[in-house]
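User: Is it possible to get a 3D structure for a protein together with its bound compound? The compound here is 9D3. I've pasted both below.
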Amino acid sequence: MSGFRATILTLFPAMFPGPLGHSLAGRALAAGLWLLEAQDIRASATDRNRTVDDTPFGGGAGMVMRPDVVAAALAQAQDGRPTIYLTPRGRRFAQADAARLAASSGVVLLCGRYEGIDQRAIEASGAEEISVGDYVLSGGELPAMVLLDAVIRLLPGVMGAAESAIEESFSAGLLEYPHYTRPADWCGRAVPPVLLSGNHAAIAAWRQAEAERVTRERRPDMWAAYSAAIASPAPVP
Ligand code: 9D3
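Assistant: Yes, that's possible. Here is the predicted structure of the complex:
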């Protein structure tokens, strides 16, 4: 039991657990390997209309989430766990962030709607600002689910030991080789013959070559980093 606790601050608590209630994350949730609490930010509003937003200072389109309401919601949740504000202005989420957060006691995830949250509430909270990629979504809830899915599969006991070992050997900076299963011939498409050869050294070499080819073709950024690491490998301590 790892006891990882995720608190989501959102205007749409009914969106959770959503996809996180299914498959690997859902089984881990049911098994008590992690805990999810969706906290309604609107419950921290104080006026009779439960207002959570207001017009932007300086003018412009849309509405901004009020700092007093967000700060009151955060005050209920923060207890030393890392706080993350999901925002298109954030640093891009990566596997290293997932690994770091999986080693913590949990996370407080703050989801914005409208144009976002008053920056003073973000600064006062000490939150880290994280984006999931360069495309425009309509709020932070789906990004929060993406982040949690990446973290939860790394928690102790969530994946089998065999899968976890494979994971380590694959964080090697290459995209994966392609996968095939039966039938060996499907609709006139044959499986690469080497995979049926029983020659395990040849299979390993083919997979390595395929991983390198696809990385070179699709991810010049990853390929450059990989090539540099191969040219001057890190010294073994
Ligand atoms: C017109 C300016 N927009 C910024 C690109 C405003 C804006 C768009 C979308 C403000 C907030 C949003 C809602 N998106 C998120 O809350 C969000 C997000 C995203 O849209 N893309 C990638 N990662 C994330 S994390 C949170």
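The longest helix spans residues 200-218. The CA atoms of residues 6 and 36 lie 5 Å apart.
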